């Protein structure tokens, strides 16, 4: 499930992206805008604190509070803001409500016990944001249920690996459709705050890096908006950190020598002379577990044709690692130093996200990378048949 806001964008975002030449000019300071936010909510408790927080790329700042015990009616936040921005209300029951403020008078109305169904007037961007979140929530509910069903079927052993592979592909297709929806929304919304919020839903470094064209256009559309510039700065920092990209196709794969499931040292170089899929995964990685039926099916199909799999786990608990190997029927060679993301092998191969894999030829050269789903079988068919 996708997390709520700015989970990916963390750290000291001190670099601004000057590549487009749009930030080289003097930065203007936006004129302050007055705002009023009225809360017309039935069943609101008589005590507790309501917080109004400003959401920035690298921090959340509380800009105002209302004490329900002493606040006068109607409940109203007032103040000034520099430009359109992302905000959230935190209620006494722990619920959060995201909104966009751009100045003027915004009214929030509805039932406190049904905050997901409240309405906004005076803020069309908040209406747009709520519609986006509603769609995201619905899709996440479906994906969560499909993933649970898949995991249950996989563990029960009721379905063949080929059928599980089809189910896994269906989940991946839905996940890709959701990512496409997020990118399209960010690329077409007329609200810079909504666009930044949407892009913050991208869950992985790879997803964010693939969003570069959308981020480029966003900066072109809103070159002076501070939230957009902060997002671009965060993107640039992530891109710089990822400059040590996975090893290029054509290079010789570095040797990996780690303990196998029995604690004996096993080296990748021991398999020279075979086509080897070096597969990075972990028991806790749901996409990896969804991908495993594809790898199992391919292994069964090509294991007698000079092909094998060399799996490197990013687990930290041996019992979880061994259990996943058994549950997923991964009947090939496995190694791990049980250091999680501190794995020496992951660092050696510049692995930033899993699942990740590298296909090696008999001389140990990388001939393909990240063959996910049917792409793995298609590639091996061309090589081995």
UniProtKB/TrEMBL annotation:
One of its GO terms (molecular function) is oxidoreductase activity. One of its GO terms (biological process) is cytochrome complex assembly. CDD domains: TlpA_like_family (cd02966). It comes from Thermoflavifilum thermophilum. The keyword Disulfide bond applies. SUPFAM superfamilies: Thioredoxin-like. It holds the Pfam family DUF4369. This is Peroxiredoxin. Keywords: Cytochrome c-type biogenesis, Disulfide bond, Redox-active center. It comes from the Bacteria. The lineage of its organism: Bacteria, Pseudomonadati, Bacteroidota, Chitinophagia, Chitinophagales. Residues 247-385 form the Thioredoxin domain.
